[in-house]
Amino acid sequence: MSLVSAFVPIWVLTAIGWAACRWGLLGEAAASVLGRFVFHLAMPSALFLALSRMPLSGFANRSLLAFAVSTAAVVGLGWVGASRLFDRTPGERPIWGMAAGYVNSANLGIPIATQVVGSVSFLAEVVLLQVLVVTPVILVALDRHSDPAGRVRVRHIASLPVRNPVILASLLGVVCSAAGLRLPSAADASLTLLSGAAVPAALVALGASLHRPAASRAEPAEPAELAVIAALKLVAQPVIAYAAGLALHLSAPQMLAVVVCAGLPTAQNTFIYSQEYGVGEAVANRAVVVTTTLSLATLAAAASMLG
């Protein structure tokens, strides 16, 4: 029941968002407004606090390398597959890759790591990798393709860390952690309150978006696309992580942590980013729902085989 209990809040809040939109409680722009609130305010606050309080020692190790290999492979496969198999536009391909390989390391990863692995120490390293390496790559690609002419805007991309609140907050958090800086108590308390809204608001926005599929600015997601994304996310990524772990001679506890983290479902950040840049929304929101649903079984199977 421990795995089930980790999923219950996700489904409850997503259902609340859908029902609130269905009954007209939040208005037609609910998903857009909530998504922008999360992207510009709540998520940066949460990332800054998490990274500023996280020690950076031990970030580079074999376990993280195994996870990084699986992430790079699956994000790349998803990125290429979106073009070769489903003829997705260049702007949609980064979202496709993110849906295939960007794990839900926050609201779902923390309880599962605690209950299955017994520690969140490796998950903290996964958060750093995704925030400091994977997220900038995805956002740079999205920013480039948001230009109507498809130009590579060097100055525009170079200023992305300053303009993008997610990257900026992450960088500031790492700087504070490295320098041992702490915010004044009033500022810390304010950001803590704001960051607490990130996960529930993102899930409510996800649920609200599910009630307006016709309003999506992207082409609808086909069942075949979702099947490929789910296979990459829930099967290919943990299998690649396991193979990399074998090659790197990881211990049994290390292997369990790597495979379980690699098998986490698609993060709802995928939907938030797709909504912010106006591409791939249908693929993103359905990928989150489908992989989160199926991961209950795949994570339990992986934990059973490796535990």
TrEMBL record:
<keyword id="KW-0812">Transmembrane</keyword>
<keyword id="KW-0813">Transport</keyword>
<dbReference type="Pfam" id="PF03547">
    <property type="entry name" value="Mem_trans"/>
</dbReference>
<feature type="transmembrane region" description="Helical">
    <location>
        <begin position="29"/>
        <end position="51"/>
    </location>
</feature>
<keyword id="KW-0472">Membrane</keyword>
<dbReference type="GO" id="GO:0005886">
    <property type="term" value="C:plasma membrane"/>
</dbReference>
<feature type="transmembrane region" description="Helical">
    <location>
        <begin position="189"/>
        <end position="210"/>
    </location>
</feature>
<dbReference type="InterPro" id="IPR038770">
    <property type="entry name" value="Na+/solute_symporter_sf"/>
</dbReference>
<feature type="transmembrane region" description="Helical">
    <location>
        <begin position="162"/>
        <end position="183"/>
    </location>
</feature>
<keyword id="KW-1133">Transmembrane helix</keyword>
<dbReference type="GO" id="GO:0055085">
    <property type="term" value="P:transmembrane transport"/>
</dbReference>
<feature type="transmembrane region" description="Helical">
    <location>
        <begin position="63"/>
        <end position="82"/>
    </location>
</feature>
<feature type="transmembrane region" description="Helical">
    <location>
        <begin position="122"/>
        <end position="142"/>
    </location>
</feature>
<keyword id="KW-1003">Cell membrane</keyword>
<comment type="similarity">
    <text>Belongs to the auxin efflux carrier (TC 2.A.69) family.</text>
</comment>
<protein>
    <recommendedName>
        <fullName>AEC family transporter</fullName>
    </recommendedName>
</protein>
<dbReference type="InterPro" id="IPR004776">
    <property type="entry name" value="Mem_transp_PIN-like"/>
</dbReference>
